[in-house]
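Workshop exercise sheet. Pairs work together: one partner reads the sequence aloud, the other fills in the structure field after running the prediction. Swap roles for the next sheet.
Pair: D.N. / O.F.
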Amino acid sequence: MSPTNAIVKGSMMWNLWHGCHKLSPGCKHCYVYRGDAKRDIDSSVVTQTKNFDLPLRKKRNGDYKVPAGTLVYTCFTSDFFVEDADPWRSEAWQMMQQRSDLNFLIITKRIDRFAQCMPEDWNDGYNNVTICCTVENQACADYRLPIYKEAPIKHKIIICEPLLEKIDLQPFNIGAWIEQVVAGGESGSESRPCDYDWVMELRNVCMEHNVSFWFKQTGAKFIKDGKLYSIKRQFQHSQARKAGINL
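Structure field:
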C-alpha cells in the first residue's frame, strides 16, 4: 500500500475496542472524549466493540463482507497498543494475518509498547500492516521516533497531528525509513493554534529527503503570516488541500 494524500475512497473503519487513557499533550482535547461526552460515555473505560470480528464476517454466499484490497483504518477510537486491550490483541493480529488481502493502518502514541505487543509470527512485520507513530511536539518526537525507527515495521508513517509546535525531523534521517509525514491542526472549540510555518518546515524536510508529505487539515485555529484564522470544521480539510503543498 503506497501512501496517499487523501482519505482513501472505499476504505473502511474497524474499531475493535473503544476508549483510551490520555497520555501526552496531543490527547488534551481528544475527539473521542469530546464525542463520548455528548453521549454520557466514559472514554477512559476500554471495551471491546461489537465489530471486533469485522474482517472475518461473511456474506451468505461465503464471500467476505470486507472485499480484498480494502484499506482498513484500524482502532481509531482507541489506541491499538493501550494496556487494557492486551487480552484481545493476539486475536486481532490473527485476523490481520488471516486477511492478508486487506491493508490495515494503525495510528499509535504508544510505540514504546510495540515490542511487547508483537505477535509471535511478526518477524520483520506483516506486509499488509502500516503502523503510524504520532508526534505532536518536539518532546514526543525525540522520545518516540528513535524507538519507532528501530521497530521491525515494514510500513511507517509519522503523524504530526495535532501539530502543537515546530517539530524538527531533520535529526531522524527520515528518508531512510519513513514513507510519509502527515501534518494537521487540532479541531474542536478548544483547539490550540497550528502555524503554517510549522507545516512548511515539515514539508521542507520531506522534500529534502524525498518523503511523501500530506497536509491533512488546518485545524480550527490556523496561523498564517502572523494572522490567526478561525476555520469551521467542514472547511479544515479543503483549506489544507487548497494550500497545494502535498508531495
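Discussion prompt: The mean pLDDT is 97. What would you look at next?
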